[in-house]
Request: fold
Amino acid sequence: MIAVYPGSFDPITLGHLDIIQRGSRLFDLVIVAVLRNPNKVPLFSVQERLEQIRRTTKHLPNVEADGFDGLTVNYAQQRQAQVLLRGLRAISDFEVELQMAHTNKTLSTQIETVFLATSNEYSFLSSSVVKEIARFGGSVDHLVPPHIALDIYKCYNHNYPTANPTTTEITPPHQNMATAAPQEILQEREM
Reply:
């Protein structure tokens, strides 16, 4: 049985990889299908994303990456897939994904949508979150495969972060002289 796992994968995250690996144990072939979306300005070109996915999944012999445009159902039919594979992170995903699954079913009754719940450690993770962290110079090493992290840092012209430094300015609390203890007032006047 062939499954198509569609998405933008801009970039592929460890959450995506979790779904791909688990899907590869369930299906004979998993096609990670990168959507060419003319309405979005991606961080990586379709070709770059395909190469990233291929490098990330090279240990999985029954996984391939391909690009497509148009309706996902049409692409799945062209590839003779019987299943659309989708990951669910949170309850908010469910509503959108269920609507999409019902819509796809009206387009083709031969293709089923299979949902896999994302593993807990990736339930917050999205490509958008990764890009936002990287854009501000934060480390994304724990969110994407190592070679993807390097590609992301290059895109944002950042050096490879060693940590997630945050700078905060500590300002002493303003003390009201009327409520301060006499000893504190005396010390303040001596300064």
Observations:
- Helices lie at 14-26, 46-56, 72-78, 91-107, 127-135, 146-155, 182-190.
